[in-house]
UniProtKB/TrEMBL annotation:
GO biological process, one term: kynurenine metabolic process
Species per Swiss-Prot/TrEMBL record: Oryzias sinensis
Family annotation (InterPro entries): Aminotransferase_I/II_large (IPR004839), Kynurenine-oxoglutarate_AT (IPR051326), PyrdxlP-dep_Trfase (IPR015424), PyrdxlP-dep_Trfase_major (IPR015421), PyrdxlP-dep_Trfase_small (IPR015422)
Record note on quaternary structure: Homodimer.
Pathway this chain belongs to: Amino-acid degradation; L-kynurenine degradation; kynurenate from L-kynurenine: step 1/2
Record keywords, A-Z: Aminotransferase, Lyase, Pyridoxal phosphate, Transferase
Obligatory cofactor(s): pyridoxal 5'-phosphate
Domain Aminotransferase class I/classII large: 25-403
Family: Belongs to the class-I pyridoxal-phosphate-dependent aminotransferase family.
Single GO cellular component term: mitochondrion
Catalysed reactions listed for this entry: an S-substituted L-cysteine + H2O = a thiol + pyruvate + NH4(+); L-kynurenine + 2-oxoglutarate = kynurenate + L-glutamate + H2O
Superkingdom classification of source: Eukaryota
Pfam families named in the record: Aminotran_1_2
Protein name per Swiss-Prot or TrEMBL: Kynurenine aminotransferase 1
Length: 411
């Protein structure tokens, strides 16, 4: 095997998704809806499949023409500058491949990449596989007050600035954040943007949960800030946008001078993504363009539905003494398990952190799957945050109820 595969062999999704299946656990672990995508987009997929032979063959390598066209129009209107459908967008196999292309195309041996913790776990192996060096900075709960909201977790501007060296190439941010649910405020993004501009850094902005914000929190695209358009790669996901994670359609949007390098990785690895899925996603965005901001829009309906589920889960967790941090966005909630007195009965297993052992116990003994939060940290900072576990609430009310029954019975 190549050295590239070394040190990146553990994967929290592989491990815990299998464990949840083995124990037939109620699954609030892996982040995917257990309900169907909206009818209009399922119909669009069926129509695409029933369409002519072209729907079943290769399409344009860098993105099916109707899809890049509507993505450019849709996101151009939001970000406030023109996006060229052919030059500034790459359609990918989910947000995962957009991220992979970005790291492979833009990070060189020995380059340093600043990653804000907690972070979606794949950033770390992707930096390492590109030969780069991850440099971590944790969001920290503000001191001196009870932490109730993800908004209370903040970056220290001084600490962030101290991480920049002559080798720093990029900063990776994720807003709304997985697993915390933090939605970065304009001032926070401006601080990051100022640093990027000052040191000529790239910004990889993972915005797969961009439609999912609650209680008035507003998602801001860092690419819309002055001086950031040319240095930001914005990553999105149709899987997350339309509750169709299995379709694996995503994209990277940036300036042509940056995206052209991502295209090189793409053309020499994947070449292109499934045509019919891209056609369906194009039709989904065409519809959403027309109803944008209206109650009819799925990008309004999904967060409205999730708002209730978020409340349900938070109330349930509070009632059993797990202190949840209320997410301002996304579809995950982390909760503090330190008050739970449980004999994990695994004295022999001291190598794993407490949250990993707790989640395994919860799956095996109680039939409820969640995700340990230290999986979203570097090894050096994970220990500080292993009192949290992550719950996913993009689930049917009956699934949330089943989880509640388990929690209430045992507590
Ligand atoms: N980024 C984040 C923050 C995620 O939570 C996920 C998981 N969906 C991805 C990227 C990958 O998205 P996709 O399923 O579109 O590859
Ligand atoms: N993004 C999803 C999550 O955070 C799933 C990722 C995966 O299964 N690889 O749960």
């Amino acid at each position: 095997h190549s050295s590239r595969t070394e040190g990146v062999d553990k994967n929290v999704w592989v491990e815990f998704t299998q464990l949840a299946a083995d124990y037939k656990a109620v699954n609030l672990g892996q982040g995917f809806p257990d309900f169907s995508p909206p009818e209009f987009i399922r119909e669009a997929f069926c129509d695409a499949l029933k369409g002519g032979p072209a729907m079943h063959q290769y399409t344009r390598a860098f993105g099916h023409p109707p899809l890049v066209k509507i993505l450019a129009k849709f996101f151009g209107r939001i970000v406030g500058h023109e996006i060229d459908p052919l030059e500034d967008i790459l359609v990918t196999v989910g947000a995962y491949q957009a991220l992979f292309c970005a790291f492979q195309a833009l990070i060189d041996e020995e380059d340093e990449v600043i990653i804000v913790e907690p972070f979606f776990d794949c950033y770390q192996p992707m930096v390492v596989m590109a030969g780069g060096k991850p440099v971590y900075i944790p969001l920290r709960p503000r001191e001196g007050r009870a932490v109730l909201s993800s908004g209370d977790w903040v970056l220290s501007p001084e600490e962030l600035a101290s991480k920049v060296t002559p080798r720093t190439k990029a900063i990776v941010i994720n807003t709304p954040n997985n697993p915390l649910g933090k939605v970065y405020k304009l001032e926070e993004l401006q601080m990051i943007a100022d640093l990027c501009i000052k040191h000529d850094l790239l910004c990889f902005s993972d915005e797969v949960y961009e439609w999912l914000t609650y209680d008035g929190a507003k998602h801001v695209k860092i690419a819309s800030l002055p001086g950031m358009r040319e240095r930001t790669i914005t990553v999105g996901s149709a899987g997350k946008s339309f509750s169709a994670t299995g379709w694996k359609v995503g994209w990277a949007i940036g300036s042509r001078d940056v995206i052209k390098h991502l295209k090189i990785i793409h053309q020499n690895s994947i070449y292109h993504c499934a045509t019919a899925a891209q056609e369906a996603v194009a039709r989904g965005f065409e519809r959403e363009y027309e109803v944008f901001g209206a109650p009819d829009s799925y990008f309004q309906q999904l967060p409205a539905m999730l708002h209730n589920k978020r409340q349900k889960l938070a109330t349930c967790l509070q009632s059993v003494g797990l202190n949840p941090i209320m997410p301002e966005g996304g579809y995950f909630m982390i909760a503090d398990i330190s008050s739970v007195k449980v004999d994990l009965n695994d004295e022999s297993n001291k190598v794993e952190s407490r949250d990993f052992r707790f989640v395994k116990w919860l799956i095996k003994e109680k039939g409820l799957a969640t995700i340990p939060v230290s999986a979203f940290y570097s090894p050096e900072h994970g220990k500080e945050f292993d009192k949290y576990i992550r719950f996913c609430f993009v689930k049917e009310d009956s699934t949330l109820k089943a989880a509640e029954d388990i929690l209430k019975k045992w507590s």
